[in-house]
Write a structure and sequence with these properties.
GTP Cyclohydrolase I, domain 2; 5-stranded mixed β-sheet; 7 strands; binds zinc ion
């Protein structure tokens, strides 16, 4: 994955809050409702504020978050794992929620980070329009670049509401993706240890 794909994207010519609210009013009219009726009058503003939260990951550099906080390991070289990090994202095809959990592990070489920072990296990429496959690779590559560990492993298990609430309507189906780098890819024992722990 290119460096550009991992970096925050700030698109020039970003519409104003007012323009975004007008776009929501257009969709409300398109759905067949009246954006001027009492129950909907504040909806465009609420939707735009929700979007600001759903897509807050575009303005943060995940690699930078990790770089700022690393510490020397003091000799700790065993696996560090954060299991069951819950996240909400949105699929880039339908803009509906992807809800799931991520498991993230690395084998330190010389640097460790505060474990909350790993959860923060998951959130930064989740708060963008995503495919699960892309998000899995982005998290793994960011940790790999920032910490230069001996190995990184990321597994994501998520339900896509574009499959459960529309289209083929298959609730309860989860999608599992994984990205293993370094020792987790090359060394069957490291991989087994990771898989046993999740
Ligand atoms: Zn979708």
């Amino acid at each position: 994955m290119s460096d550009k794909a991992l970096r925050p994207k700030i698109v020039p010519g970003r519409p104003s809050q007012e323009e975004a609210e007008e776009a929501v009013r257009t969709l409300l009219r398109w759905a067949g409702d009246n954006p001027e009726r009492e129950g909907l009058i504040d909806t465009p503003n609420r939707v735009v504020r929700s979007y600001a939260e759903f897509y807050s990951g575009y303005t943060t550099d995940a690699e930078e978050e990790l770089r700022r906080t690393f510490e020397e390991t003091e000799g700790y070289d065993e696996m560090v794992m954060l299991r069951g990090i819950s996240f909400e994202s949105h699929c880039e095809h339908h803009m509906v929620p992807i809800i799931g959990t991520a498991h993230v592990a690395y084998l330190p070489r010389t640097r460790v980070v505060g474990i909350s920072k790993l959860a923060r990296v998951v959130d930064i990429f989740a708060k963008r329009l995503q495919t699960q496959e892309t998000m899995t690779v982005q998290i793994a590559q960011t940790i790999d670049r920032a910490l230069q560990p001996r190995g990184v492993a990321v597994v994501i298990d998520a339900e896509h509401q574009c499959m459960t609430t529309r289209g083929i309507h298959k609730p309860g189906v989860s999608t599992v993706t994984s990205q293993l780098l370094g020792a987790f890819r090359e060394n069957p024992e490291a991989r087994r240890e990771f898989l046993a722990m999740i």
